[in-house]
Design brief:
The structure is a single chain. The protein is an alpha/beta fold and 326 residues long. The chain has two domains: 149 residues, 3-Layer(aba) Sandwich (D-Maltodextrin-Binding Protein, domain 2), CATH 3.40.190.170; 134 residues, D-Maltodextrin-Binding Protein, domain 2 (3-Layer(aba) Sandwich), CATH 3.40.190. The strands form three sheets. A five-stranded mixed β-sheet has the order 2-1-3-10-4, with helices on both faces. A four-stranded mixed β-sheet has the order 8-5-9-11. The chain is globular and about 55 Å long. The structure holds beta-D-galactopyranuronic acid. The site of beta-D-galactopyranuronic acid has 11 residues, from loops.
Length: 326
């Protein structure tokens, strides 16, 4: 009798454990940005919506401020499943996923709306497929505006102004090639190190969007911001592909919906923050320089495109598709 009860209790406990673990996933997520940054707020919202829409079956603990490591490291961690979620810029993903690297070609997009139109078309599908094949499934796209050059001692108006300048870039051969073609010395470096590098003169300049230029304090040590807008790179909420595929179809739909709603919020917050950041740095004494003619910068990028096509002959059509997208 006693044995029977014990057996059935053990059986019930085992069933309960199976029931609890069958769909449940406790995810950990990486984000590089500080509190209050649009992505940080939107990733927290994602975590909230995730729990809500999956009835608590999928939860997410976010780690902000790059506390879990640099972006290139975090990309590898999500691919390997050591982390499940990352809010990544596609720049550092390009070296791993050739299709995703098209968005890091300088001047490939006309503006941010053009970028989103491409992402919502078959071009975006090709990029997403390439990413998933490398273990990074994009669930939604975030806005990261346009990146422009900043430095300490002069406005940049022509490629000649970049001549001999040491410029920090994100890890990607397209970005080192871009600076080299302008006559500068590219210096790939982790985001967290840029402030100190600018301050101590390890680099002369860097490039980023308004919110990052402001939130990092880079504007305090590099007070000329020249509107080259040479890169328009989307960001993703990316999930480890195996972790996502392990979920039921219903749960996958709920997770995707949470990510898309988070992206809608992020894009609204982004628009407001771009304006606020610009205002804040200008109030802090930054000199904003409109570049009258960006054509010489664009014309200098020919060899960067050629090098890309040489390594990825199959991707010429994807670039053409982007250029043909209205
Ligand atoms: C920011 C982007 C970050 C990171 C950073 C950088 O605009 O949101 O993910 O890529 O730039 O320059 O490293």
């Amino acid at each position: 009798m006693f044995e029977k009860i014990t057996k059935s209790l053990v059986g019930a406990a085992a069933l309960a454990i199976i029931a609890v673990t069958a769909n449940a996933a406790d995810w950990r997520g990486w984000n590089i940005h500080v509190e209050g940054y649009p992505n940080t707020v939107a990733m927290d919202k994602f975590a909230e919506l995730l729990a809500e829409k999956t009835g608590g079956e999928v939860t997410l603990q976010m780690f902000h401020g790059g506390t879990l490591g640099s972006q290139p490291d975090a990309v590898e961690q999500v691919r390997a499943g050591a982390l499940e979620i990352g809010n990544f810029n596609l720049g550092p993903i390009g070296p791993i996923v050739a299709e995703a690297n098209v968005v890091s070609l300088p001047f490939v997009f006309k503006d941010v709306p053009h970028m989103f139109r491409v992402l919502d078309s078959e071009g975006g599908a090709a990029i997403a497929e390439g990413m998933a094949a490398k273990g990074l499934t994009p669930l939604a796209w975030y806005d990261a505006g346009a990146r422009s050059f900043y430095n300490g001692d002069k406005a940049i108006n022509t490629p000649a102004d970049v001549q001999g300048m040491k410029v920090r870039v994100m890890n990607n051969d397209l970005f080192t090639g871009m600076i080299a073609q302008l006559g500068g010395n590219p210096s790939p470096m982790a985001f967290a190190e840029v402030y100190q590098a600018l301050k101590t003169g390890v680099v002369d300049g860097a490039e980023n969007n308004w919110p990052s230029y402001e939130s990092t304090g880079h504007y305090e040590v590099a007070g000329y911001y020249s509107l080259s807008q040479h890169l328009i790179i989307p960001e993703c909420i990316c999930v480890n592909t195996d972790a996502f595929n392990a979920l039921s179809a219903d749960m996958q739909a709920a997770v995707t919906e949470a990510a898309q709603e988070s992206a809608t919020l992020q894009r609204e917050l982004w628009a407001a923050r771009e304006a606020a950041s610009r205002e804040a740095v200008e109030a802090g004494g930054v000199i904003v320089n409109e570049i009258a003619d960006k054509a010489p910068f664009q014309d200098a990028m020919g060899p960067v495109y050629e090098a890309y096509f040489e390594t990825n002959p199959g991707l010429r059509s994807l670039v053409e598709l982007i250029q043909a997208t209205e």
